Amino acid sequence: MRGKLFVFCTGLFLIVCNCYSQTKRIENLKRQIHFSQNDKQRLETLFSLCEQRQSLSSDTLHKYALEAKKLSDATNDLNKIAFADYYLANYYVKIGLLDSAFILCNNNLETLQNKKLDIKAILKFNALKAQVLVKDNKYKEGLAEFYKTLSLAEHSNDTLMQMIARNGIGWVNMEINQNDEALKWFFRALQTSKNNLYHQKNANIYSNIASVYTAKHQNDSAEFFAKKAIDLSEKDENLFFLSNSLNILADNYIDLKKPALAELPLKRAIKIREQIGEPFYVVSDLSQLAIFYAHQSQPEKGIAASRHGIEIARKYNLLSKLPYLQFALAQNYKAAHDYLKYGETLEQVLSLKDSVFQLNSEEALAEIKTKYNQQKQENLIIQQKLAINRKNSTLFVAFTSVMFAIIITLILFKNYKRKQRLIVARIKDEEALKAKQAVLAAEENERKRISADLHDNLGAYASAISSNVDDLIAARGAVTDSVINSIKSNADDIMNSLMETIWVLNKTEILITSVSDRFKSYVARIRDSYPEFSININENIKQNATLSPEFALNMLRIMQEAFHNAIKHSDGDCITVEITSGARIEVSVIDNGKGIINKSMNGNGIGNMQKRARSNGWKLTVKSLEPKGTAVELSS
Q1: What is the value of pTM for the model shown?
Q2: What is the CATH number assigned to the segment(s) 445-635?
């Protein structure tokens, strides 16, 4: 009878485990814990289960981490106690208690380093501490910890932690929109080992690459890496990586304007995320869901999802996620045709990004990278010294050669050390000089660009408003609605000009057709103020070329300045604009006015146009036509 009761209870236990376990591996580990023979075996199995932390719900991880902590404390084994604390710290990260996780990391790192204990535990805490700092919007400090982890992993030849650290460095760069630098580090992480098991354990590297390619609108590459990440995550039974990969695949389909394809992976990802939970990634899901609703013309649902995400992000102090949520909210306001709130929300996005980047400037991140390179050089020197000592050990065979060998070795070592100090000092000086020159050049270029933008773009609208004011004065009381509306329109156009800069900042690549559409919108906004002009815009787009944001903005500003000059100075009544894109990009703005007057070539407008063209590496020509007129020609 007892035997039958035991079988019945065992079967019931297995059914319950099957209902609540996230993966087969977790289910199997729970069974092993239940049937463990002693505390030692139970503790080892608890650690194995907690290692599946990314697939466990917060409550489940907390339950088993606490049990592991209790058993570890009873052993008085500092390494085991540290690993139990590590899984508790992971639980705090899951529920958004970043301060508690940070304190646990620091306390255990201090103990482990002072006692010179397990290097694997030190590496795990370093990597987790870096993750906590990044999630707390402290990118500079997080990047420093990832570099520190990489240096330790290289020194101890820990392949898995090298991949994790390099992926972490790429992740930080991705978070601050340094996509090219991020890709470089992600591929370095993949190249760390050819062992497929390591790649399976780090499937998120592939999903991170897919995310960057989506941002760069290289959708075929993004789809390949996202599906690769999904396949590896499923094989490793990592629900966290799987949900991320599904979200990124859905994001890529949305970017391709194929929302129907995005629905299935998005719903599957949300279902998985509900199993495991974690505020940092829940808000990411909500931002992506909001974007999905914007593309599906369901702005009410998108606005609700965005606001819910913003509420969670503020509750758990996840400031780095606020720009993404605000951007999703703006897209839904746009879909709802609420352009006032759309503009206000975009301004909040820029403000949030400015505050984040002010704390995590490229100059500060470059300084950390330089320190890592210096540490790597010093590690190389240490390894070279060790190699020299090992080679010299063979000289100690006979007693008669011992003293001679020591003297020679000391002399050589002293010279070698002096040379290495000189090399390191020179490298430091060169890196410091390069960093200083880069900062100065960037500041000067930015100052010139802003100056040119203010003259080239806002000047045209200010002139239009001035013309409208002249009409008001001439009317002497007979003010018409059309004049007032024209003034309002031109004032709005000044705001639209600023939005063009926002448009460029939000892109990594811009199509020539997009630049053309922006120019046509510009002309449409300003032409009502100059009804005496006949304006023709002709497109011949054989190849829809892509431009960098800087190139695209320079091209648009040159076209706007040329158009503005024709209206204000040509004394003509017809303007023709030709936009051609094939093997080369060619643009011309032609009027039927009085032609070039020499003194007009000295103005800021022509000078700024020439500077912009040279900045793109393009050719700009301004010439008079026969019998009359002026042509401004720009070619790549």
Answers
A1: 0.51
A2: 3.30.565.10
Q: What whole-number distance in Å separates Cα of residue 301 and Cα of residue 294?
A: 9
d(CA 315, CA 600): 59
Cis amide bond preceding 323, omega within 30: no
Dihedral over alpha carbons 308, 310, 313, 314 (to 10 degrees)? -110
Cβ neighbour number for residue 261 with a 10 Å cutoff: 15
Q: What are phi and psi of 593, to 5 degrees?
A: -85, -150
Closest Cα to residue 594, out of 564, 566, 571?
Answer: 571
**557, 576, 566, 582: which is closest to 635 by C-alpha?**
582
> To which residue do tokens 């003010």 refer?
479
CA dihedral 239→240→243→247, nearest 10 degrees, is -170
**With 90 as the cut, is the pLDDT of residue 87 above it?**
yes
User: What is the crossing angle of helices 119-135 and 98-115, to 10°?
Assistant: 150
Cα–Cα distance, 64 to 328 (Å, whole number): 37
Query: In percent, how much of the chain has pLDDT > 90?
Result: 34
Q: What residues pair up with 537 in beta bridges, in sequence order? A: 577
Domain chopping of the chain, boundaries: 364-444, 445-635
Calpha distance 69→79 (Å, rounded): 12
Length of the chain: 636
Neighbours of 357 (CB within 10 A): 13
Listed residue (336, 311, 334) closest to 321, CA to CA: 311
**Which of 490, 377, 449 lies closest to 616 in space, CA to CA?**
449
C-alpha distance from residue 527 to each of 490, 520, 570, 613 (Å): 10, 10, 15, 25
Question: Tokens for 149?
Answer: 């982890």
Rounded percentage of the chain residues whose pLDDT exceeds 70: 76
Tokens matching residue 123: 């590496």
- β-strands 630-635, 585-591: how paired? antiparallel
Contacts of 25 by beta carbon, 8 Å cutoff, 6+ apart: 52, 237
Torsion angle defined by CA atoms of residues 513, 524, 549 and 460, in that order, rounded to the nearest 10 degrees: 150
Name the amino acid, one letter, at 379: N
DSSP 458: I
Q: Please tell me the predicted confidence (pLDDT) of residue 479.
A: 56
